[in-house]
Specification:
By secondary structure, the protein is α/β, with parallel strands linked by helices. It has a single domain, classed as HAD superfamily/HAD-like (Rossmann fold, 3-Layer(aba) Sandwich), CATH 3.40.50. The chain is built from seven helices and six strands; from the N terminus they run E-H-E-H-E-H-E-H-E-H-E-H-H. It has helices at about 20-25, 50-60, 75-80, 95-105, 120-130, 150-170, 170-185; strands spanning about 10, 30, 65, 85, 115-120, 135-140. The protein has a six-stranded parallel β-sheet, sandwiched between helices. The longest helix is centred in the C-terminal third of the chain and has 20 residues, at about 150-170. The chain is globular, with a radius of gyration of 15 Å. The structure holds magnesium ion. Magnesium ion binds next to loops.
Length: about 190
């Protein structure tokens, strides 16, 4: 199980990614977590910067779908303002919500190696994406102080598993999680 918690990549934020390179590598569908990946729990709407990024991505040829575990109206409100389709109450790390995004929302038009999931949590986003055998990108949470209770619980688990991964898969840890783990401890 713990191997499935290792992301393919780690980035400090969604603005630090070379999307052109991703596109050239064949990625076409981006599944995006909302809370603390795109906006903090305190925010409700996409910023100008985020909207600009979205336009750039769509111009490059990516398709974007929001996949959130939240079942609140804020998902609908955000997705509407952001103007992308969404799956709410997705229950990551279960496969159900992610599969719904791939099969129903994106109409099964993409192969697994064309799909990439972005999120700020190992226990939900990365584990869920890896279970679905798609590519995963871990993002540093925008503002961990805004985490809601279940997420804070997940962060505790995350810390525990980070240590196990570091012990058991040192090479992968150093390559993909070291920076994240260090930040975590500070
Ligand atoms: Mg999140």
């Amino acid at each position: 199980m713990i191997k499935k918690l290792i992301p393919d990549y780690f980035y400090k934020s969604i603005y630090d990614i070379d999307y052109r390179k991703l596109y050239e590598s064949g990625i076409r569908l981006l599944l995006l977590d909302m809370d603390n990946t795109l906006i903090s729990y305190k925010e409700t709407l996409p910023s100008e910067k985020l909207l600009n990024l979205k336009h750039e991505l769509e111009e490059m040829g990516f398709e974007l779908i929001l996949v959130s575990n939240s079942r609140k109206a804020r998902v609908n409100n955000f997705a509407t303002a952001f103007n992308i389709p969404f799956v709410k109450f997705s229950m990551k790390p279960l496969k159900r919500g992610i599969k719904k995004a791939i099969k129903k929302v994106a109409k099964n038009r993409y192969e697994k190696d064309q799909i990439m999931l972005f999120g700020d949590q190992l226990m939900t986003d990365i584990y869920g994406g890896n279970r679905c055998k798609i590519k995963t990108v871990l993002i540093d949470a925008i503002d961990k102080n805004t985490d809601i209770a279940p997420t804070r619980m997940n962060r505790k688990l995350e810390r525990f598993f980070l240590k196990r991964i570091k012990k058991k898969y040192k090479e992968e840890y150093d390559k993909k999680l070291k920076e994240y783990g260090e930040e975590y401890d500070s």
